[in-house]
Amino acid sequence: MLKQIWFWVLMAGILVMALFTYGAIRQVQVWLYEPMPLSEPILVTISAGSGLGSISGKLQKVGVIAHANSFKYYAKWRQLDRYIKAGEYQFSGSINSAEVLAQLVSGKVLEYQFTVPEGLRYKDFVTLLSQHPAMQGKPIPEANQWLTSMHSRWQHPEGLLFPSTYRFARHNLPLDIIKQAHLKQVQILQSAWAERAEDLPYDTPYEALIMASIIEKETGLANERAIIAGVFVRRLQKGMKLQTDPTVIYGMGADFKGNIRRSDLTTDTPYNTYVHRGLPPTPIALPGRAAIHAALHPADGLSLFFVAKGDGSHEFADTYPQHQINVRKYQLKN
């Protein structure tokens, strides 16, 4: 009789332990797989060298996971703790602990966006970059430093960065974006140069980049880029001065106050194409892909002159007398 009592006591104990174990496992599953509804995005920075306990505690404290120990033991059991990557993470919506761990292991950090339009200058690029919230306080390298470190054949930074949208993480430095933009511009220029039209008045890809920067500043209309490129190419081929205002403005630097005076057109700077024949010594802006393509694929035609019409477009002329008529019509309003 006593043996039977002990048997049932033992069975009851086993049953209680089984139920307790089952309940514990179910609770852990709830902590791991039941989504945590986040009312707003939460940022968590995982520092390099952080231990799993510290990471788990931080995640629980900000409300990303429900139970730090369950997260920690699950990460160890899956042997994923050693693969957690440092960085700034953003968690939003409904996310469970297993998904949080997967994001930390994949290194899917929060990305920021930085956009530079075509036609801005190098100084505008680095100024905008330094003002980005994720870049403030980080050092902006001098142009000669990154040009030297990248073994660039050029010494002037103007035109050498591709104007586009770049994505980066909090840990990235301005130098990372600058290098990326430079490599992209070089790749685009080299590719376009390899497919250039015949009989162009450029000896090097760099000269084509200079022309592209002028085209970029002269028009924002897609259907005019190749036409304007054709005008400039024909002027170079005929030994005519380019006589383009954007190069004059670039050469004036801080002296430009919004208007070009007659005296400015005769002031001798390396960039004054009313004074000097040929191309200026460097690009005058950051040209985009379309402007580079236009410089290397100018439109056929006879036009040698153009004048702004005041609506963003231009009127083209084959002869100087016709150009004078256009100037009186669109600029002097006669």
Could you name the key traits of this structure?
mainly alpha; Dna Ligase, domain 1; two-stranded antiparallel sheet; 48% helix
Can you describe what's shown?
By secondary structure, the protein is mostly helical. It folds into 3 domains: 35-110, Endolytic murein transglycosylase (Dna Ligase, domain 1), CATH 3.30.1490; 112-191, no CATH class; 195-330, no CATH class. It has 13 helices and 6 strands. The protein has helices at residues 2-33, 52-61, 68-77, 97-106, 122-131, 143-149, 174-194, 205-218, 225-237, 245-252, 262-266, 289-296, 320-330; strands at residues 36-46, 87-95, 112-115, 165-168, 305-308, 314-317. The strands form 3 sheets. Strands 1-2 form a two-stranded antiparallel sheet. A two-stranded antiparallel ribbon has the order 3-4. A hairpin with a 5-residue loop joins β5 (305-308) and β6 (314-317). It is elongated, with a radius of gyration of 32 Å. It starts with a helix and ends with a helix.
**How many DSSP H or I helices?**
13
Beta-strand segment tally: 6
**What's the arrangement of strands in the largest beta sheet?**
1-2
Percentage beta strand: 5-15%
Counting structural domains, the number is: 3
Biggest pleated-sheet summary: 2 strands, antiparallel
Distance between the termini: 124 Å
Please state the CA-atom Rg, rounded to the nearest Å. Answer: 32 Å
Give the low-confidence spans: 18-28
Shape, please? elongated
Order of helices and strands: HEHHEHEHHEHHHHHHEEH
The pLDDT mean sits at 89
**Helix proportion of residues, in percent?**
40-55%
- Structural class label: mainly alpha
